[in-house]
Known about the structure:
6 helices; alpha+beta
Amino acid sequence: xxxxxxxxxxxxxxxxxxxxxxxxxxxxxxxxxxxxxxxxxxxxxxxxxxxxxxxxxxxxxxxxxxxxxxxxxxxxxxxxxxxxxxxxxxxxxxxxxxxxxxxxxxxxxxxxxxxxxxxxxxxxxxxxxxxxxxxxxxxxxxxxxxxxxxxxxxxxxxxxxxxxxxxxxxxxxxxxxxxxxxxxxxxxxxxxxxxxxxxxxxxxxxxxxxxxxxxxxxxxxxxxxxxxxxxxxxxxxxxxxxxxxxxxxxxxxxxxxxxxxxxxxxxxxxxxxxxx
Length: 276
Protein backbone atom coordinates (compact mmCIF):
# COMPACT_ATOMS: atom_id res chain seq x y z
CA UNK A 1 0.00 0.00 0.00
CA UNK A 2 2.88 2.39 0.73
CA UNK A 3 4.08 2.03 -2.86
CA UNK A 4 0.84 3.46 -4.38
CA UNK A 5 1.58 6.88 -5.83
CA UNK A 6 -0.73 9.89 -6.03
CA UNK A 7 -1.67 9.22 -9.67
CA UNK A 8 -2.85 5.68 -8.84
CA UNK A 9 -4.92 7.00 -5.92
CA UNK A 10 -6.54 9.58 -8.18
CA UNK A 11 -7.41 6.89 -10.73
CA UNK A 12 -8.92 4.70 -7.97
CA UNK A 13 -11.00 7.62 -6.71
CA UNK A 14 -12.28 8.22 -10.25
CA UNK A 15 -13.19 4.53 -10.53
CA UNK A 16 -15.06 4.74 -7.20
CA UNK A 17 -16.97 7.78 -8.40
CA UNK A 18 -17.81 6.09 -11.70
CA UNK A 19 -18.94 2.89 -9.97
CA UNK A 20 -21.06 4.87 -7.50
CA UNK A 21 -22.64 6.80 -10.34
CA UNK A 22 -23.32 3.54 -12.20
CA UNK A 23 -24.90 2.03 -9.09
CA UNK A 24 -27.18 5.05 -8.66
CA UNK A 25 -28.12 4.93 -12.35
CA UNK A 26 -28.77 1.20 -12.15
CA UNK A 27 -30.96 1.66 -9.06
CA UNK A 28 -32.88 4.39 -10.85
CA UNK A 29 -33.27 2.11 -13.86
CA UNK A 30 -34.56 -0.70 -11.59
CA UNK A 31 -37.12 1.65 -10.07
CA UNK A 32 -38.20 2.82 -13.51
CA UNK A 33 -38.53 -0.77 -14.75
CA UNK A 34 -40.49 -1.75 -11.65
CA UNK A 35 -42.78 1.22 -12.23
CA UNK A 36 -43.25 0.21 -15.84
CA UNK A 37 -43.89 -3.38 -14.80
CA UNK A 38 -46.48 -2.32 -12.28
CA UNK A 39 -48.16 -0.16 -14.89
CA UNK A 40 -48.05 -3.01 -17.36
CA UNK A 41 -49.44 -5.48 -14.84
CA UNK A 42 -52.24 -3.09 -14.06
CA UNK A 43 -53.22 -2.52 -17.68
CA UNK A 44 -52.52 -5.82 -19.39
CA UNK A 45 -55.44 -7.96 -20.39
CA UNK A 46 -55.59 -11.55 -19.38
CA UNK A 47 -54.27 -12.91 -22.61
CA UNK A 48 -51.82 -15.83 -22.75
CA UNK A 49 -49.41 -14.07 -25.16
CA UNK A 50 -48.81 -11.26 -22.63
CA UNK A 51 -47.17 -13.73 -20.23
CA UNK A 52 -44.16 -13.90 -22.57
CA UNK A 53 -43.64 -10.11 -22.47
CA UNK A 54 -43.98 -10.16 -18.70
CA UNK A 55 -41.28 -12.80 -18.46
CA UNK A 56 -38.96 -10.64 -20.61
CA UNK A 57 -39.54 -7.66 -18.34
CA UNK A 58 -38.82 -9.84 -15.32
CA UNK A 59 -35.47 -10.98 -16.82
CA UNK A 60 -34.49 -7.42 -17.63
CA UNK A 61 -35.29 -6.36 -14.06
CA UNK A 62 -33.21 -9.22 -12.64
CA UNK A 63 -30.24 -8.33 -14.88
CA UNK A 64 -30.43 -4.66 -13.91
CA UNK A 65 -30.60 -5.58 -10.21
CA UNK A 66 -27.55 -7.85 -10.56
CA UNK A 67 -25.59 -5.07 -12.34
CA UNK A 68 -26.48 -2.61 -9.59
CA UNK A 69 -25.34 -5.04 -6.89
CA UNK A 70 -22.04 -5.67 -8.70
CA UNK A 71 -21.45 -1.93 -9.04
CA UNK A 72 -22.11 -1.41 -5.34
CA UNK A 73 -19.69 -4.20 -4.43
CA UNK A 74 -16.95 -2.72 -6.69
CA UNK A 75 -17.44 0.72 -5.16
CA UNK A 76 -17.24 -0.72 -1.63
CA UNK A 77 -14.01 -2.60 -2.50
CA UNK A 78 -12.39 0.54 -3.90
CA UNK A 79 -13.47 2.56 -0.86
CA UNK A 80 -11.89 -0.05 1.43
CA UNK A 81 -8.66 0.08 -0.60
CA UNK A 82 -8.56 3.86 -0.33
CA UNK A 83 -9.12 3.71 3.44
CA UNK A 84 -6.29 1.17 3.78
CA UNK A 85 -3.97 3.37 1.70
CA UNK A 86 -4.80 6.43 3.82
CA UNK A 87 -4.07 4.46 6.99
CA UNK A 88 -0.76 3.19 5.58
CA UNK A 89 0.30 6.71 4.59
CA UNK A 90 -0.55 8.01 8.07
CA UNK A 91 1.47 5.18 9.62
CA UNK A 92 4.40 5.93 7.33
CA UNK A 93 4.32 9.63 8.27
CA UNK A 94 4.30 8.73 11.96
CA UNK A 95 7.24 6.35 11.52
CA UNK A 96 9.22 8.96 9.54
CA UNK A 97 8.66 11.55 12.28
CA UNK A 98 9.78 9.07 14.93
CA UNK A 99 12.92 8.23 12.91
CA UNK A 100 13.78 11.92 12.49
CA UNK A 101 13.37 12.48 16.23
CA UNK A 102 15.58 9.46 16.95
CA UNK A 103 18.30 10.78 14.61
CA UNK A 104 18.27 14.17 16.33
CA UNK A 105 18.37 12.62 19.80
CA UNK A 106 21.30 10.31 18.92
CA UNK A 107 23.32 12.67 16.70
CA UNK A 108 26.03 13.09 19.33
CA UNK A 109 26.40 9.32 19.74
CA UNK A 110 26.66 8.83 15.97
CA UNK A 111 29.34 11.52 15.68
CA UNK A 112 31.26 9.95 18.56
CA UNK A 113 30.99 6.50 16.95
CA UNK A 114 32.26 7.92 13.65
CA UNK A 115 35.25 9.42 15.48
CA UNK A 116 36.11 6.45 17.69
CA UNK A 117 35.34 3.79 15.09
CA UNK A 118 35.67 0.11 15.90
CA UNK A 119 35.92 -1.45 19.33
CA UNK A 120 39.71 -1.80 19.10
CA UNK A 121 40.02 2.00 19.16
CA UNK A 122 42.28 2.15 16.08
CA UNK A 123 40.56 5.20 14.58
CA UNK A 124 40.70 7.13 17.86
CA UNK A 125 44.31 6.06 18.39
CA UNK A 126 45.31 7.21 14.90
CA UNK A 127 43.50 10.52 15.46
CA UNK A 128 45.35 11.12 18.74
CA UNK A 129 48.66 10.17 17.13
CA UNK A 130 47.96 12.54 14.24
CA UNK A 131 47.72 15.42 16.73
CA UNK A 132 51.12 14.50 18.14
CA UNK A 133 52.45 14.17 14.59
CA UNK A 134 51.40 17.75 13.84
CA UNK A 135 53.51 18.97 16.77
CA UNK A 136 56.40 16.77 15.70
CA UNK A 137 56.27 18.08 12.13
CA UNK A 138 56.37 21.69 13.33
CA UNK A 139 59.54 20.94 15.30
CA UNK A 140 61.07 18.81 12.52
CA UNK A 141 60.49 21.47 9.86
CA UNK A 142 62.28 24.01 12.02
CA UNK A 143 65.36 21.74 11.96
CA UNK A 144 64.85 20.97 8.26
CA UNK A 145 65.14 24.70 7.54
CA UNK A 146 68.78 24.39 8.67
CA UNK A 147 69.54 20.94 7.25
CA UNK A 148 67.75 21.11 3.88
CA UNK A 149 65.79 24.37 3.45
CA UNK A 150 64.56 23.17 0.07
CA UNK A 151 62.12 20.77 1.72
CA UNK A 152 59.28 20.83 4.22
CA UNK A 153 57.33 17.89 5.60
CA UNK A 154 53.55 17.72 5.90
CA UNK A 155 50.77 15.20 6.44
CA UNK A 156 49.02 13.70 3.43
CA UNK A 157 45.52 15.28 3.27
CA UNK A 158 42.87 12.85 4.45
CA UNK A 159 45.42 10.53 6.09
CA UNK A 160 46.25 10.55 9.79
CA UNK A 161 49.83 9.25 9.77
CA UNK A 162 51.06 9.49 6.16
CA UNK A 163 53.73 12.07 5.24
CA UNK A 164 54.73 13.85 2.04
CA UNK A 165 57.35 16.47 1.21
CA UNK A 166 57.02 19.95 -0.32
CA UNK A 167 59.81 20.90 -2.74
CA UNK A 168 60.24 24.68 -2.43
CA UNK A 169 62.74 24.86 -5.28
CA UNK A 170 60.13 23.34 -7.63
CA UNK A 171 57.31 25.79 -6.96
CA UNK A 172 55.93 24.11 -3.82
CA UNK A 173 55.61 20.79 -5.68
CA UNK A 174 54.24 17.99 -3.52
CA UNK A 175 56.40 14.88 -3.67
CA UNK A 176 56.42 11.43 -2.14
CA UNK A 177 59.05 10.68 0.48
CA UNK A 178 60.15 7.79 -1.73
CA UNK A 179 61.26 10.33 -4.37
CA UNK A 180 64.00 11.73 -2.10
CA UNK A 181 67.59 10.66 -2.61
CA UNK A 182 69.47 8.73 0.04
CA UNK A 183 71.09 11.86 1.44
CA UNK A 184 67.82 13.81 1.38
CA UNK A 185 66.02 10.97 3.11
CA UNK A 186 68.72 10.93 5.80
CA UNK A 187 68.35 14.67 6.39
CA UNK A 188 64.55 14.39 6.59
CA UNK A 189 64.89 11.51 9.05
CA UNK A 190 67.44 13.46 11.06
CA UNK A 191 65.09 16.45 11.20
CA UNK A 192 62.30 14.19 12.49
CA UNK A 193 64.66 12.70 15.09
CA UNK A 194 65.73 16.16 16.21
CA UNK A 195 62.12 17.25 16.36
CA UNK A 196 61.25 14.19 18.42
CA UNK A 197 64.06 14.97 20.84
CA UNK A 198 62.53 18.38 21.44
CA UNK A 199 59.17 16.95 22.49
CA UNK A 200 58.56 16.48 26.19
CA UNK A 201 56.06 14.21 27.90
CA UNK A 202 55.13 14.54 31.53
CA UNK A 203 57.93 17.03 32.17
CA UNK A 204 60.60 14.66 30.80
CA UNK A 205 62.91 16.00 28.10
CA UNK A 206 64.93 13.81 25.76
CA UNK A 207 68.56 14.56 26.60
CA UNK A 208 70.35 11.90 24.55
CA UNK A 209 70.09 11.34 20.80
CA UNK A 210 71.73 8.48 18.92
CA UNK A 211 72.05 8.69 15.15
CA UNK A 212 72.64 5.26 13.60
CA UNK A 213 74.38 5.30 10.20
CA UNK A 214 73.20 7.23 7.15
CA UNK A 215 76.23 9.50 7.01
CA UNK A 216 77.72 7.45 4.19
CA UNK A 217 74.96 8.71 1.85
CA UNK A 218 75.93 12.37 2.31
CA UNK A 219 78.22 14.44 0.16
CA UNK A 220 80.90 16.52 2.00
CA UNK A 221 78.82 19.73 2.02
CA UNK A 222 75.69 18.00 3.30
CA UNK A 223 77.76 16.10 5.86
CA UNK A 224 79.12 19.39 7.21
CA UNK A 225 75.56 20.72 7.44
CA UNK A 226 74.35 17.67 9.35
CA UNK A 227 77.31 17.71 11.75
CA UNK A 228 76.84 21.44 12.34
CA UNK A 229 73.20 20.82 13.28
CA UNK A 230 74.25 18.08 15.70
CA UNK A 231 76.88 20.37 17.19
CA UNK A 232 74.22 23.01 17.76
CA UNK A 233 72.04 20.43 19.47
CA UNK A 234 74.96 19.32 21.64
CA UNK A 235 75.70 22.91 22.56
CA UNK A 236 72.15 23.23 23.89
CA UNK A 237 72.92 20.62 26.54
CA UNK A 238 71.92 17.38 24.84
CA UNK A 239 74.20 14.42 24.28
CA UNK A 240 74.49 13.29 20.67
CA UNK A 241 75.89 9.91 19.71
CA UNK A 242 76.77 8.87 16.15
CA UNK A 243 76.95 5.23 15.11
CA UNK A 244 78.85 5.05 11.83
CA UNK A 245 81.52 3.26 9.80
CA UNK A 246 82.36 6.28 7.64
CA UNK A 247 86.17 6.70 7.60
CA UNK A 248 87.38 9.96 9.06
CA UNK A 249 84.09 10.79 10.75
CA UNK A 250 85.63 10.12 14.14
CA UNK A 251 87.92 13.09 13.57
CA UNK A 252 84.88 15.38 13.43
CA UNK A 253 83.52 14.48 16.87
CA UNK A 254 84.86 15.23 20.31
CA UNK A 255 84.96 11.76 21.84
CA UNK A 256 84.61 8.30 20.31
CA UNK A 257 83.91 4.76 21.40
CA UNK A 258 85.71 2.36 19.04
CA UNK A 259 84.70 -1.28 18.73
CA UNK A 260 87.57 -3.23 17.17
CA UNK A 261 87.45 -6.97 16.39
CA UNK A 262 90.41 -9.02 17.62
CA UNK A 263 89.46 -12.41 16.15
CA UNK A 264 87.77 -15.50 17.51
CA UNK A 265 84.45 -13.73 17.64
CA UNK A 266 85.75 -11.23 20.17
CA UNK A 267 86.08 -7.47 20.09
CA UNK A 268 87.62 -4.82 22.26
CA UNK A 269 86.19 -1.43 23.10
CA UNK A 270 88.39 1.65 23.22
CA UNK A 271 87.23 5.05 24.43
CA UNK A 272 89.03 8.06 23.01
CA UNK A 273 88.73 11.48 24.59
CA UNK A 274 88.32 14.79 22.82
CA UNK A 275 91.04 15.62 20.30
CA UNK A 276 93.04 18.81 20.63
